[in-house]
Amino acid sequence: MAGGQINILSEEQIGLVHENTLHLLTKPGVRVASEIVLKLLADGGADVDLGARIARIPEELVEETISKVPKSITLGARDPKREMVAPRKGPPYMATNGTAVYMTDLETGAKRPTMGNDLKDFMTLCDAIDSLDYVWPIVTAHDGPERFHGLNELAIAMHSTTKHIQGEAMSAEEAKDMIRAASLVTGGEDQLAKKPIFSVIQCPICPLEFEKGSVEAVMEFAKAGIPVVSMSMALCGLTAPVALAAAISIVNAENLASFTISQLARKGAPVIYSSESSTMNMKTGEIRYGAREEVLIAAAVAQMAKHYGVPTMVGSFGMGLHGDTPGINVDPSELAFTTMTNLSLTDFSSGIGGLDQAKGAALEQIIIDTDIWESVREIRNDVEFDDKHFANELISSIGPGGNFLNSPHTIKNMRKELFLPNAEKSSIFESYRLNKDQKDILSKARERVEEILAIHKPEPIEPDISKRVKEIVDRRR
Questions:
Q1: Kindly report the CA angle at 155 between 315 and 95, in degrees rounded to 5?
Q2: What is the pLDDT of residues 28-39, one digit of tens each?
Q3: The pLDDT of residue 336
Q4: Domain segments of the chain as ranges
Q5: Taking 60 as the threshold, does the pLDDT of residue 2 lie above it?
Q6: How far, in Å, are 45, 66, 70, 128, 297 from residue 61 at the CA level?
Q7: Are 246 and 240 in contact (CB under 8 A)?
Q8: Quick one: pLDDT at residue 4?
Q9: Mean pLDDT of the chain
Q10: Is the pLDDT of residue 380 over 80?
Q11: Strand 271-275 vs strand 312-316: parallel, antiparallel, or unpaired?
């Protein structure tokens, strides 16, 4: 039995979502701002209106796409021990938040724009924290090449962590450069395709639109075997109707349309079904992270992904997203709902270290978020249901009215079956109780950041390869 998972759609409702998704993919269809991709879709069987840049994707092409997408994928890493295989049993693989435009300074606390050295510090810190499984370059390097941020940030991350990296590209040209740079590190494009050390988040423009540069990058990544995360960001009341069923079908349609493009570019291209959808804050117009509806959408679309048999990335986790300074900036109910998004049927999640609705980030916030994530993630652990775990003979031997305290079975299994942190972790978890002083929490988090950055040195890339990666980035400055 899978522990702690949310299923909200019945089999009938899954069928209704699929049926309405097929309707959206033909009426109105999807707008694609790239003639190259429109031609690809037309050649694959879509009804394309070049003038309106609309592609209507028929049911037969959708079903063909679903049959082609890999049902499991491996995300590589410079350190093979940090590879990730999806689908995953147990808690989702967890990553940082991504592409914030400012940080709070570790020494002064002041907000400031982020640079390449800041991203290096963030990635080095993340490399040292075991409960982070992969990294999304959490801050933007504003001193990098203006039109090639994704390339520059991938290069910085590859030098600063041995974990899998998730990035993004804004053009086919940038995608090709990212593939070249990563291929140098892995020993060639064939090796990169076998176990890609990076994947990419490429967001459709909700509702039902694909921007030229991003969608052409999807084609390049698909051809190179780089996993594409099709992150739909439907917002009820802004880019989706104020009706959860409609938002769910839009998310589903955008993912299936993106998958179609990937599979037409290369049969069997690795893809990940994704959503970071929620509601609009009706007072400010911003995305509302932690909304109750976010949990329902995440759970529903994750079920749709599993219905199609593809890996998933939905849900987020972070304590700082409702404030612009580090700390626990969510109320207890928001913490509960933030945690619950990771109880959906997801393989990957993200959000660690973010502030201010993902616009900001803080090094201390990474410490705080990963501590709290460690304290709640075990609820997704699988529960075994076999003869051994029913323990009938043991129960019979103890008998009615007995107890299991002195049983060798208890000693043998308590750390396997129960969440029992050691003394150090227990002390850390205790420090986050709601009656604790946040100044003390922040002070200790800051000390831990400084200690890690002072002693942790990620495994370096060979100097000659590092020089060639730098040359690729420098050509774009």
A1: 15
A2: 999 999 999 999
A3: 73
A4: 68-378+464-474, 387-417
A5: no
A6: 7, 9, 16, 44, 26
A7: yes
A8: 64
A9: 92
A10: no
A11: parallel
273 vs 309: CA distance, rounded Å: 10
The residue assigned the tokens 């491996």 is 74
Per-residue model confidence (pLDDT) at position 442: 92
* CA–CA separation, 32 and 126 (whole Å): 36
Q: For the chain, how many residues are written?
A: 477
Local confidence band at 370 (pLDDT 50, 70, 90 cut-offs): very high
Do residues 167 and 150 make contact, with C-beta atoms less than 8 angstroms apart?
yes
What is the CATH topology of the domain spanning 68-378+464-474? TIM Barrel (3.20.20)
